[in-house]
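Figure 6 in text form: structure in, sequence out.
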């Protein structure tokens, strides 16, 4: 009976992706909390600065192994500096978060395929 596991590089990549996914969960909750406040009539306020503080370390963490995902996080950080209304920015933040989560999910599946190592169990 054969089974698979990840090699060392694959395990490190998966750890990086899992940490990125946790950070993205935190960012997603920040975006949704801001959406609730905006629905109540409050302005976006300091949210872009809070997001930048949270997401900047994520860019550095992903840059070495997953440059494309890091570039998408950087692009998300640029949304706050654009002109336009808060509703447009909020929609862009939501789309960016969904896109990055999808990229992380795809990268996890790719790592599982590329770094799988067959292990065989001793017959009993």
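Output sequence:
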């Amino acid at each position: 009976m054969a089974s698979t596991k990840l090699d060392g590089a694959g395990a490190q990549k998966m750890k990086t992706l899992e940490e990125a996914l946790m950070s993205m969960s935190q960012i997603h909750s920040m975006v949704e909390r801001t959406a609730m406040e905006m629905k109540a009539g409050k302005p976006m306020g300091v949210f872009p600065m809070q997001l930048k503080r949270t997401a900047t370390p994520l860019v550095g963490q992903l840059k070495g192994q997953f440059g494309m995902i890091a570039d998408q996080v950087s692009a998300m950080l640029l949304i706050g500096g654009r002109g336009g209304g808060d509703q447009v920015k909020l929609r862009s933040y939501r789309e960016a978060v969904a896109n990055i989560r999808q990229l992380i999910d795809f990268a996890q599946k790719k790592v599982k395929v590329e770094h799988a190592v067959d292990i065989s169990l001793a017959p009993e």
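Caption detail: The helical segments are 8-39, 47-63, 67-78, 86-114.
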